[in-house]
Amino acid sequence: MTHADPQLVAATQTISSSLAHYAAGFALAAVPQAVRGRATHLMLDSLGIALASTRWDFARQTLAGLRELAGNGGDVPVIGHGQNLPLRDAVVMNALLIHGLDFDDTHPRGVVHATTSVLPASLGLATRLGSSGADLLAAYVLGMETTTRIASVAKGGFHQVGFHPTGLIGAFGCTLSAARLLGLSEEEMVQAQGIALSLASGSLEFLEDGAGTKRLHPGWAGGAGITAATLARHGLIGPRAAYEGRFGLYASHLGPLAEQCDFSLATEALGETWETLNVAIKPVPACHFTHACADAASILHAQWASAPIKRIVARVPAGVMKVVCEPQANKRRPGNAYEAQFSIPYSVATGLRFGRFGLDALESAAYQDPHTLAIAALVECVADPAADFPKYFGGEVIVELVDGRTLSHAEPINRGAPGRPISDADIVAKYYDNAARAVNRAHADAILNAVLGIEQGTAAALSALLGATASLA
């Protein structure tokens, strides 16, 4: 990796200028139908999760805080609450609802949750502007294609140094989505990305004690993107080498790991290869890094049949150890739902004991259950040098029984990954399961039809449907 020479930046093409050129000419008509169809299903998945999240304390707590800050103002609906908030506050809230249960989609190579920032930002701004559903979809796909590529440059490095790509990188994709909706010029889009560099954030310190701050990251990214694009529209100047500059995104946030960056990935095959198709749907409501081991343990459930256990080994990619295996004491005895979602020992124990890991595993009665915790205490995490990370988030579970038998199952490709995708039909089933926790079937049907038919609708109409008070009546 080499940094951009400041004296040459103005005269040469930067990542910002390449992305701005792509965004300025982005047209929905050029997006293949398969990509547009998958995009609407990704949107549907996230909105179902948002509806399910309305029943959790973190939603009530955050809305109360944002409501206090906003006073009585607001013109953008909050999903499932029958209330409006000012644009950027609504983006924070709606993104929190999508991301709060850690059930939202992930781009494996970029190790980033993209929809959770791009969709609320695009939907909120499009609602404010009175945009068509087609323009909303275009902004969403643009944000997905750019967020995933910008994140991929780091090759999984952000997690290793304590930054959360969902918040950090989401700001840039949301900037380009907002810029398109606002009609910025190509040059203004360059400036907007430079402004976003000073607004992007997201620390992984929440992993140390299960704090809930991760839920705020995508919405903050969405608000940052809208802010950056709006300020650029009014003439504010940002640095041109926002990504590859001497103090740009990668150098300032990755330290020595910046040397592994491949800048070409930021613009690779734009308009030819569609990263939206490579976004993985989550089948398990927990950190994607836990899925393979949770599934492996669930598959071993029937074979185990509650036989006494001597030892359990969970083999995972070295790149995920800091996130889902350390510190060991917290991972073996999660103190709250968030710690449970980022714990290989807990996910393995739950899968082995019950044959599944669902939303019920996030209830306090589940992660405080002494029988489950006794199994989690036997789990040892080891790094698998052969893992194909970050392309896949694989895992293997080996259960050594007291009677001398050994049970094992490996999931080298996690369920939902591009090499093992979840179908659109499965996404619809997941949507209905999540939506049913908050709305009746008729309401869920109306939302589904609006999302899948978004090209014929409007952003405001979709927001109004989503914003209606959640009701099971």
3D structure, described in words:
With 473 residues, this protein is an alpha+beta fold. The protein folds into 2 domains: 6-278, Orthogonal Bundle (2-methylcitrate dehydratase PrpD); 288-411, 60s Ribosomal Protein L30, Chain: A. The protein is built from 23 helices and 6 strands. It has helices spanning 6-9, 15-24, 33-53, 57-70, 87-99, 115-129, 133-152, 157-160, 165-168, 170-182, 186-197, 217-233, 249-254, 291-304, 321-324, 328-332, 337-341, 344-354, 364-367, 370-376, 424-435, 441-452, 459-467, and strands spanning 76-77, 84-85, 309-316, 379-383, 395-401, 406-411. Helix 2 packs across helix 11 (186-197), helix 6 (115-129) runs parallel beside helix 10 and helix 6 crosses helix 12. It starts with 5 loop residues before the first helix and ends in a 6-residue tail after the last helix. The model is unreliable at 7-11 (pLDDT under 50).
